[in-house]
Amino acid sequence: MRLRLRFMLQQQPTRWGEKRGRFYIASVPPPRARAKKMEALYDYLTSPQFAQKLRAVFETFKKMKEEPDSEKNVTIRRWARREKALQAGMNQLLGIGGEIQGLSQQELPMLQLEAERSGEA
Questions:
Q1: What CA–CA distance (Å, rounded) separates 121 from 107?
Q2: How far apart are CA 12 and CA 19, in angstroms?
Q3: Distance between CA atoms of residues 56 and 102, nearest Å
Q4: Contact assessment for residue 25 and residue 16, using Cβ atoms and an 8 Å cutoff
């Protein structure tokens, strides 16, 4: 048994470690095998197929970003239209109030109507 273990240790590099209080021997692939794996990984990472997969993932995320952006732009335009309509209504109301006050002169109590100057052009 000891001879077999010694033979195995001589044939293949090992890494000693501890896992849950127990010692174990993990085999380390020989340098040639590691080099082959690294070469295969490099070939895959530089292949057109990998580039295509990356483009596909990028396009997916790009579409995912464009959808909320377009919804946001539509909502902003809708709010701008509503704000413009509200401002026009306020201006008309102020015009009517001013006309009433002008016609009644002192007989009508002074109406406290003022347009907001921040949104008025």
A1: 32
A2: 21
A3: 69
A4: yes
- Cα–Cα distances in Å, from 44 out to 34, 36, 38, 49, 60? 15, 12, 10, 8, 22
Contact (CB, 8 A) for 111 and 100: yes
Measured at the CA of 48, the angle between CA 63 and CA 40, to 5 degrees, comes to: 125
SS3 1: coil
Q: What is the pLDDT of residues 37-86, one digit of tens each?
A: 899 999 999 999 999 999 999 999 999 999 999 999 999 999 999 999 99
Are the C-beta atoms of residues 87 and 117 closer than 8 Å to each other? no
Cβ–Cβ < 8 Å for 120, 86: no
